[in-house]
Amino acid sequence: MDTRSSTGLLGTLVIATLVALGLFGFLNGYVIDSPGEWLAPTIGSLAVAVAVVGVLIVAGARSRRWRQNPYW
Questions:
Q1: Same domain, 43 and 23
Q2: What sections of the protein cross the membrane (predicted)?
């Protein structure tokens, strides 16, 4: 494998590991144990995060310059 594919594989593994740890923490803290007063703020934070990511995706998809980068 060349350096670029090795780096891409490592980045993918790191992201997958972080997602797995986050999912484990969420399930352990909010599904198995009772979150009590922290449930509403957590759901609100997740909703804001999803909205921000969605806005960034839409802004990037509607941009006319996104393929003018020399990388592509």
A1: no
A2: 7-32, 38-59
Q: How far apart are CA 13 and CA 23, in angstroms?
A: 15
Contacts of 60 (CB under 8 A, 6+ apart): 66
pLDDT at position 70: 63
Q: Structural domain of residue 56, as residue ranges?
A: 37-72
Is the same domain home to 58 and 41?
A: yes
| Spatial distance between the Cα atoms of 11 and 17, rounded to a whole number of angstroms | 10
User: pTM (2 decimals)?
Assistant: 0.52
> Taking phi first (over 0 means left), then psi (-120 to 50 degrees means alpha), and beta for anything else, what does residue 33 get?
beta
